[in-house]
Amino acid sequence: MQSLRCRRGLECADLFLQVRRHASSECPNAKGCRACRRVLGLHLGPLERTRLREAFRQAAWQHHPDSASKLAGANFAELRRCYEMLLHCCGKISEGGSKSDLAKWLEDRQTATVEIVKRSRQGRVARQSAGLVGCPKAWDARLSAARTKVHGPEALEVVLDIDLPSELPRFLWTAAAEQGIGPLTGRGLRFCGSYRRGQDFNAAASYVNRFGFYLFWSQLFSDWKIANRLSEKGACTAFVDGGRDKPPWSAMQNGRVATLQWAVWDPSTESFAKQPVLVRPL
User: Fold this and answer.
1) Does domain 9-97 have CATH number 1.10.40?
2) Which of 72, 216, 226, 256 could crosslink 206 through cysteines, CB 3.0-4.6 Å?
3) Which InterPro entries match (predicted)?
4) pLDDT attached to residue 81
5) Cα torsion angle, 168, 173, 175, 176, sign
6) What are the residue boundaries of the structural domains of the chain, listed by start?
7) pLDDT above 50 (res 168)
């Protein structure tokens, strides 16, 4: 068995073009299956998991983004999609299955797709605007999740809970610092104050204040962040460890919301420092 070798650039490009055209979703057609087999260097016949995994490993060396090849990474996503699709076929077609088995499986998938489309009342445009792309088999679950709002308070207050001598009440410290007066001047406290509920992000509630700072859960780092944009990328102002189901306002101590140790960016030292921050529902 030998995986695809792209010595002839046009032939290789044509194969991956067929993959993108016919196997670009979880509902591939027969042409997509044939194209995926050719990409992985597998001949027509029974699909075996061990044989399929070995073919994918050999092809991955050629197309992996970390490879030294000039075209490395360009087709790795399609290669991975081929592997996952054929691996799914292994679960549907027993070893020694015939070509008619594959045709029957594709027919069943098409029938299920038609039924799901009939049940959906929002139409194609509404689904695309809601980000429901891909195989229609997942539409029902995604639509249900979109209709069910993630649990969370409608408003929060973020307070830097430090004890500094001041004639001002604590709730005025942030406002005074923004105007250049008070004990917290220059500490970059525009992220403090009241937050209102915004759009859900990473299947968790997110919040925004009047200065454009967002409080949200990061799926990439598994922590809660405060940043000046609702994105996994870019610098953040503060963060604290915690899972999606353990937001900072859920930590309780003696029947009250507990103060947690956040890593807060200090612009004066250009580094993060541990600071007690209280996040409580309003």
Assistant:
1) no
2) 216
3) J_dom_sf
4) 75
5) positive
6) 9-97, 155-281
7) yes
Tokens encoding 36: 């995926």
Q: Which of 95-99, 165-169, 201-205, 231-235 has the lowest mean pLDDT?
A: 95-99
| Residue with tokens 């992985």, as numbered in its chain | 40
Q: Which of 38-52, 80-94, 215-229, 255-269 has the lowest mean pLDDT?
A: 80-94
Rounded Cα–Cα distance for residues 105 and 91 (Å): 11
For 6, 152, 156, 206, the CA distances from 229, given in Å and listed in that order, are: 42, 20, 17, 11
Phi/psi at 201 (nearest 5 deg)?
-140, 130
The amino acid sitting at 84 is E
Is residue 172 scored above 80 in pLDDT? Answer: no
- Which residues, in sequence order, are CB contacts of 123 under 8 Å at separation 6+? none
DSSP, residue by residue, 152-193: --SEEEEEE------SS-GGGHHHHHHTT-STTTTS--TT-E
